[in-house]
Structure formats: C-alpha cells, structure tokens
C-alpha cells in the first residue's frame, strides 16, 4: 500500500490537523514518490482535509465551445485547458502587485468553504481565517473547517508545501519552463538541462496546484504556476461551472492515471469564462460515512503585523 492510499484511509471525521502536521504529510508524499515505500508500519493520524488542489492541464487537452453573451445570436469560441490557464496567467499579471513582507510579519488568509452533503441535506459555510508567520519563527494561528488552533514555530530544517516561509517562495523560479523542474527536484539543486518526463508530472502537478492555495505569492510566481500547469497532461475542460458564490465559470479538471486518488477527477478549478480569472475550487470530502461536495475560494490574502490583525 502506498502513501497516497494510506492518506485516503485515515480517519476523516477526526479533528483537522495543524498546518505543521499537514505539511509533514505533504512532504511524505514527495518522499514516497522519490523512493520505494518502506516496509515499516505507518502510524494512523486523523486527517480532515488535505489542502492541495490537484489540478493540471495540457496543450492537447479536450476543447469545448463556450458561448459569449455579446450579441443575438451569441458568439461561440473553442477553448482548451491551455487557453484557460494561459489566460489566467495573463489576468494575474495584470492584477498582481509586488509585495515584500518583513520576517516579523504574518500572512493573513480568509478562505470561504461551502459544503453540501451528496444525496441531500443542509449546506454549511465555513469562514476560515489564518495567520502564518512569514519566516516561521513565530507561533501561527490556523483555522480549517471552523477548527482553530495555534501552530508552533517551525523547527530547524522543517519544510512544508506550499512553503510557509517567504524566503523559500522567493527561491522558486518565475519562468514557467523552469518551475516544474525546480518542483521535481525540491530539496535538491535543479538540473534545468534535464526535461520533465512523463512519470515526473504527477508529482510536479501536485506541487504546482498546491501553490495556488497560497493567498500571497512573490510577483510573477502565480502566473508562472498557471502557465506551467498548461504543460501538464491529463485534464479536460468542463463548461457551465459555478464557484462558491454562484458565479458562472469554466472548469479545469485533472484526471490522474488509473489507480491514483485523482483518477476520478473530483477536484476542479473554476475560472471566469470571459476573463479566465481564477475563482476557486470544487472538491469532495468524505467524513463520518458521508460525502460532501465542497466549494472553496480565498476571499482575502494580505500581509499584517500581528496575529488577529485584519487588513
């Protein structure tokens, strides 16, 4: 049994993990993809939700025809996953502003998560606010599906994904061709002369899509992430999607190799159908014998001076 299967079987209705513990789980995913699984038993831990949006795209992905409400009759256009993701990169470059947080500051995140039981039942909305230390040296405060707790400072040598430390984010290349190579070799010196091979992409797309969960990134990194995702095979475009606020959009769905947790394509990124601005993610969660449909998006992200301060 591999690491991904173990993660899926952990008790999903237990209290959620802190960012620190979830970071260890993500790091173990990386290690499991690099080396054969160890024969030693793995301790079971509660897991509410892994905060990694698993999405990808390909220049040869399925295309769809999207209607544009610009006249009578409406015009249509053919859209591919690469078109959507590159459009999202262009929109992000138009809107993003450079920031330079100090080590003593915190990254504030406000994430909205709406859940509805599959098969019927009342919906519930969570407003999760978190404050993460910029350099990892101070206590952080995390919220996930309404469960809040303090997160201790990072230990020496500790790594997480997406990186919590701003200095680690700044080390990532903003060249969309180099970024997948750097993520393939996280923790090592990237060999930019060696291209990404087919069996590298599943791990690379996990790290790429994980970056989209970060509320604030160095200038140029989020656009590069969208463009890099446009090179990952295994997606299709889904028209007629809506985000958590009911806004109309177009979806990018990753379909992983058979036998992997992503083979069912449960996770979908939603983009504005006209501007391609990223709106949020649709996903599923299993807990207490039930399956919940989730819609989530980051409502706010900023740099603040202290925990509990809002922008």
Low-confidence stretches: 1-61
Mean pLDDT: 77
> Sheet bearing the most strands, described?
7 strands, antiparallel
Through-space gap between termini = 45 Å
| Number of separate structural domains | 1
Helix/strand-derived category reads alpha+beta
Secondary structure tally, helices: 7
Strands, count: 11
Q: Order of strands side by side in the largest beta sheet?
A: 4-3-11-10-9-8-7
Task: Indicate the percent of residues in helices.
Answer: 10-25%
Task: Report the C-alpha radius of gyration, rounded.
Answer: 19 Å
Protein name: Tat pathway signal protein
Structure description:
InterPro entries: CU044_5270-like (IPR047789). The protein is α+β, with helices and mostly antiparallel strands and 311 residues long. It has one domain. It is 22% helix and 28% strand. It has 7 helices and 11 strands. It has helices at residues 3-9, 19-34, 81-95, 166-170, 179-184, 201-211, 221-229, and strands spanning 64-68, 75-79, 106-117, 124-133, 140-144, 147-151, 235-242, 248-254, 268-272, 278-287, 290-304. The strands form 3 sheets. The chain has a 7-stranded antiparallel β-sheet with strand order 4-3-11-10-9-8-7. It has a two-stranded antiparallel sheet with strand order 1-2. Helix 3 (81-95) packs antiparallel against helix 7 and helix 6 (201-211) runs antiparallel to helix 7. Mean pLDDT is 77; it is low at 1-61.
